[in-house]
Amino acid sequence: MWAVPGSGNAPLRVPHVSGARVGDQPGADDKLHMKVKYMAVVTMKQLLDSGAHFGHQTRRWNPKMKRFIFTDRNGIYIIDLQQTLTYIDQAYEFVKETVAHGGTILFVGTKKQAQESIASEALRVGMPYVNQRWLGGMLTNFSTVHKRLQRLKELETMEQTGGFEGRTKKEILMLTREMTKLDRTLGGIRDMSKVPSAVWIVDTNKEHIAVGEARKLNIPVIAILDTNCDPDLVDYPIPGNDDAIRSAALLTRVIASAVAEGVQARAGQNTGADTKPEGAAGEPLAEWEQELLTQATTPAAEAPAAEAPAAAEAPAAADAETPAQA
């Protein structure tokens, strides 16, 4: 029998201290001179239950991912979840700090397995998202995209205020179709007034255009790294299964929870409840952020209830994928 290291059921508690790693324990000086916040980001059991450890078939892989692979079993690579936990902590801290200082995270996932979780988690924390087709230039040509967003809002206003009245049925039909098309492709970023501070991506191979645009603009990329991905393209990688629905949903929920914690920290900075780091340029809270703070925040990486392991799901999804470029 093979085993994934550290697969106990106890929650992994990670000290959110600069430079901390999984398993680190604060010393006496740390306890005296700094405030250490412990938080169960995600557990090994949750990762295992979601099938996050299943990679692609051994013949479909990117050699650059070798350092993230624990072993292979029945022709399927098994991802080292101990490393996954470490990288989750790093990504979580980055997202939290980015949002705490006024940044936004764009959630991107257009594959069927990720569409629902991308939309629901982004909406939960008030962040923009793209879960349909990625339009080329959505980041690099944002000025044009912004004009289309203004057109969408204009059409919606016309519909709500009776602006369609007095027009022919054909004109109304054309305007309605235009509005529907714009809402389907741009609805998730309707409130995005500028390029995001960072992007969260599920499946960097499928979203290679989004990754390329983000890198061109020096926008940090946070992403799930399956065994067929190129880690050199990602700034904050999280080794894991990007094909299983539950794996993508779990890791997206973790990122969303980091956003929620960042919003709370930002609120503390604005109210003076916490000391703002020197040079921090926080922005006033938006209305959606104020509303978010009045609601109970969903616990970080709350596991789906009573779900069967995704052992069968992940290999099946891997078979449907195209071979990675070495």
UniProtKB/TrEMBL annotation:
Residues 294-326 have a biased composition (Low complexity). NCBIfam families: rpsB_bact (TIGR01011). Residues 264-326 are annotated as: Disordered. GO terms for molecular function: structural constituent of ribosome. One of its GO terms (biological process) is translation. GO terms for cellular component: cytosolic small ribosomal subunit. InterPro entries: Ribosomal_uS2 (IPR001865), Ribosomal_uS2_bac/mit/plastid (IPR005706), Ribosomal_uS2_CS (IPR018130), Ribosomal_uS2_flav_dom_sf (IPR023591). Belongs to the universal ribosomal protein uS2 family. It holds the Pfam family Ribosomal_S2. HAMAP family: Ribosomal_uS2_B. The keyword Protein transport does not apply. Keywords: Ribonucleoprotein, Ribosomal protein. This is Small ribosomal subunit protein uS2. The gene is rpsB.
